[in-house]
Design a protein that fits this description.
Order of helices and strands: HHHHHHHH
Shape: flat
Distance between the termini: 25 Å
Strand content: under 5%
Structural class: mainly alpha
Number of domains: 2
Number of strands: 0
Helix content: over 70%
Low-confidence stretches: none
Number of helices: 8
Radius of gyration: 19 Å
Largest sheet: none
Mean pLDDT: 87
Length: 284
């Protein structure tokens, strides 16, 4: 069995998990909750093995690099980081219904990586700019931050749905959101998740700047990817600043968490396909 087959198994596990989390959310069938978690955990374990096997395969081919260098590998790694982060939250707060908002991102990322004809899934030699020991440090720190922001965006959506239901004059139609965690808990989770992601994104920008100086002779070149990274960083910095100094909570922070994830999505995905620059190899 090769890594591509394991990636396919992981994708199926995540799709099933996302579907069952949706069933848990819609029908409140608690007995499938454990199955949801086990499927998500199984998918993450299989994906871990697949990433490790792909790394080994690259060495067997005489290429020898971490599987973090193109769009396919980065999507897979994003799915892995996001699922790990979510499972840790679920274990800590014992609220499985959050999975419908998070595991959908994971399943979509894996499905797009597997089926999109725009993405090359082959193991290719590294271009000179990627042949650096900073590769793993930069990609890992950035994607842990991206995963946290994906979860924060999902939590923001969860907050807005629950608040909207609670603000209705009657309780008709509120059944779907009754199983969601209390609003103060969701708000606290959004804040903590953004802080966690912000720290990792900051580390990713720093390691990227050091790597850029090594590869291109400058710490910052205002490449589209770099520009959007700093825009995203400032957006989350302003979000945290507004909370600490202005006391922003609840709906405002939920919206900012969702807007921030849109910025993350464009930084990671949109720039690669819509804008050309030094990071254009990311779409290969």
């Amino acid at each position: 069995m090769d890594s591509s087959q394991l990636f396919g198994i992981a994708m199926i596990a995540y799709l099933l998990a996302a579907a069952l989390y949706l069933g848990l959310f819609l029908f409140k069938t608690e007995r499938i909750g454990l199955v949801c978690t086990l499927l998500a955990l199984a998918g993450t374990c299989v994906l871990t093995a697949a990433i490790g096997l792909r790394w080994r395969e690259s060495y067997q081919m005489g290429i020898g690099h971490a599987p973090l260098t193109n769009m396919y590998e980065s999507l897979v790694f994003f799915a892995w980081c996001t699922s790990c982060f979510y499972l840790a939250l679920e274990y800590r707060f014992k609220t499985r219904v959050m999975g419908v908002f998070v595991m959908s991102f994971v399943a979509i990322a894996m499905a797009y990586a597997s089926f999109s004809d725009r993405i090359d899934s082959k193991i290719n030699p590294l271009i000179p700019a990627l042949q650096s020991n900073w590769l793993i440090a930069h990609v890992v720190t950035c994607f842990i931050g991206y995963a946290a922001f994906a979860v924060a965006g999902a939590l923001g959506l969860m907050y807005l749905l629950k608040q909207s239901a609670e603000n209705r004059p009657s309780r008709d139609g509120q059944g779907l959101t009754e199983s969601l965690p209390p609003l103060p808990l969701i708000d606290d989770l959004i804040h903590k998740t953004i802080v966690f992601g912000f720290l990792w994104l900051s580390a990713g920008i720093i390691t990227g700047a050091v790597w850029a100086n090594e590869a291109w002779g400058t710490y910052w070149s205002w490449d589209p990817k770099e520009t959007w990274s700093i825009i995203t960083w400032f957006l989350y910095a302003l979000t945290l600043h507004a909370r600490f100094t202005r006391g922003w909570r609840g709906r405002r922070i939920a919206w900012l968490a969702m807007i921030g994830f849109v910025a993350v999505f464009f930084t990671y995905f949109g720039v690669n396909f819509l804008l050309s620059g030094l990071h254009s190899y990311g779409s290969a």
